[in-house]
Amino acid sequence: MEFNPKAIFLDMDGTILNHQNKVSIHTKEIIDQVRNRGIKVFIATGRAFEEIEELVPPGFQVDGIVASNGMVGYAGHEVIFKHSLSRELVETVIKMARENKVYYELFPYGSPRITLKQDRPYVENEIREPKPEGVGINEWLSRKEAIKEKITWADEMIGNEFSKFYFFGRTKEQINRWKEELEQLKQEIDFTTSISTEYNVELMVANVNKATGIQQMLKQFDLSETETMAIGDSDNDLPMLRLVNYAVAMKNAPDSIKEVADDVTDFTCDEDGVFYYLKSRLMLKD
């Protein structure tokens, strides 16, 4: 299928991020070339905006970022749109997580993620060695880093605006039990959940996902879904891939993602798959 996009949305984990949680210099350079062609390039990630800078090479630039699975959008450092979890929901979920001993990180806007100090013993215990066999190395490294230096262990909740919760389980059985608890809570308080691996679940405002964030970003730039390509690899990318005109799955994506895509990259995220795909697809030179 011949398709010349005016906008490209790129997932991070498993897409432009390799399994060591880094964006390669080759990927940065191909994004520069694409943007020099007049094509807008955006990030659409489950990660919080504040996390991104340390994962990308110096000088990395895109036209906009949809972060926290569609909860907030930025053009540069200007906020284009933003949703926030209610205080009631945050307090309820933390209490439930404590009762179920579920690892959690709460992401306030404009400040580091927090976990309450009283929950620290069991949260740290969830990240004990050895790494559970099924957990991906990138997710495990992110959790180890969070425990060591990213989480603020707070006496109480900090801030009044919150972008998302991230939850982790050492086993599929553990995280699936927690997902069932969250589904029950949805009967009382509406919200959206999203997963990027079999060992996590994230919680956002109701009816918010990457697709809703992309729609708001496209409106800001006077673009449409019919002019748009997206590349992703996991379940939280499905709304995005279903929205755009041309959906691309990474080679390392599961079959369930590849089935909804129009194309699949020839290389994985560890092999600079996005670099090679965009270089070939848009006929870009070194």
Gross morphology is globular
Q: Kindly estimate the percentage of residues that lie in beta strands according to DSSP.
A: 15-25%
> Treating each run of at least 4 consecutive H or I residues as one helix, how many helices?
10
What oligomerization state is this entry in?
A: single chain
Using the coordinates above, name the CATH class of the largest domain.
Alpha Beta
CATH third-tier fold name of the largest domain:
Rossmann fold
Main β-sheet description:
8 strands, mixed
| The CATH fourth-level homologous superfamily of the largest domain | HAD superfamily/HAD-like
Give the SSE string.
EHEHEEEHEEHHEEHEEHEHEHEH
How many runs of DSSP E, i.e. beta strands?
14
The helicity comes to: 25-40%
Rg, nearest Å: 18 Å
The tally of structural domains comes to 2
Read across the widest sheet, the strand sequence of neighbours is: 5-4-3-2-1-12-13-14
Name the CATH architecture of the largest domain: 3-Layer(aba) Sandwich
Average pLDDT, rounded to a whole number, is 96
Distance between the termini: 24 Å
| SSE class | alpha/beta
Low-confidence stretches: none
Protein name: Cof-type HAD-IIB family hydrolase
InterPro entries: Cof, HAD-like_sf, HAD-SF_hydro_IIB, HAD_sf
GO molecular function: magnesium ion binding; phosphatase activity
Keywords: Coiled coil, Hydrolase
